[in-house]
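Incident review: delayed structure delivery

Summary: a single-chain prediction request sat in the queue longer than the usual turnaround. Root cause was a stuck worker, restarted by the on-call engineer. No data loss occurred. The affected request and its eventual output are reproduced below so the record is complete for anyone auditing the incident later.

Affected input:
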Amino acid sequence: MGFLDTVKNLLSKNADKVDTAIDKAGDLVDKKTQGKYVQHVDKVQEAAKKAARDNAGATQQQPPTPPQTPPQTPPAAPAGPPPTS
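Output delivered after worker restart:
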């Protein structure tokens, strides 16, 4: 079992504690910024909770997807007059 599997297992078993920790972290940020970024912090808290739930629900590690490579184009012909024979 890999590290990520262990983390996902812990997340699924302690989802309520993870949500509480996310809420506390957001509250701390709100306090330190004097409520200046409440809307942004709330959005981040919800996204973090959703990510934690989604990752906790995934029981198998997904293989990484290969990067997309753009199609190869042939090199451009050199500019200039056409060759004469």
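Verification: The CA atoms of residues 65 and 71 lie 18 Å apart.
Action items: add queue-age alerting; document worker restart procedure.
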